[in-house]
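User: Before I run my own analysis I want an independent prediction to cross-check against. Here's the chain; please return only the structure tokens and, at the end, one sentence I can use as a sanity check.
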Amino acid sequence: MKPLLVGVVGCGYWGPILVRNFYENEAVELKYVCDLALDKLVKLHRRYPTIELTTQYKNLLSDPALDIIVIATPVHTHYELAKQALTANKHVLVEKPMCTTSKECRELIALAKAKGRILMVDHTFVYHGAVRRIKEEIERQELGELLYFDSVRINLGLFQSDINVVWDLAPHDLSIMDFLIGQTPQSVHATGTSHTDQKIEDIAYITLTFANNLIAHFHVSWLSPVKVRQILVGGTKKMIVYDDLQPMEKLRIYDKGITVEEPESDERRYQNLIQYRFGDMHAPVLDLNEALKIEVSHFVECVQTGRAPITDGEAGLRVVEILEAASASLATGQTQQMPCVGVFS
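Assistant: Structure tokens:
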């Protein structure tokens, strides 16, 4: 099969990592790398001398042989660059978050459908071995009925000038939650504050409520003295701790929980009828392949077969809708109700 031709736009932090993964994928040929900063292109060219360098995005759009455009540029540019790529009949992989508004996301989804092109969002953590293992545990009903999703993603910096800490850090864990839970929230409430003259929130807390008393909470910060990347998922049968910074045992499954006994009589109704269960802890062996490598292979397969990606435009839209609601809650102090509530396929 003829290799798919790929162009990557953006050589900041994430762009070179995408370049490496597409360069190493045998089903594609990385033809272009595009960035406005020539020095970044020159640096990449030393490592990948066969790649064509350009500062002109139009060169990628006008090449009829180019199949795929990968967008790793600032968030505010995603919509326009992706729109131009789809209009030029290119398949698109766009960095997270997908766009700055849900309206823009919907327009890109509609355009991709009209053009028959694959639109995928780079929610890399969805493809991590630990996250995929959690998904397996949930689908096998090993956790029982889900009770909560709790995440902490904090560190010291890197302060952004164009987006707040919610739009910078929360998309990672929102995309994981979206993948694992498979429901849209009923409401979103966020609190946060800025500690600099930029008036951009650098610490925030987001709470989502779902049907059946399921609750999700997110703590994001650029002002922590320590780096923490941790997710807890609790169910009626088992609970899981995912610590991405652990060199070993990133995932721990605990056979712990509670059971609530029905009172035998009205006299016992106000007694403590909660029973605690303490079982074993299991640290499963995980797929150690790089998440982005798996994601790129999945994207390429979807382009080849026409199959919808796991993190398609709809997944990107759901994350942006929550980010919008969180931003509105930060601005008004009010809980935001989500318009579309339910389970999705």
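Sanity check: The chain is about 30% helix and 30% strand.
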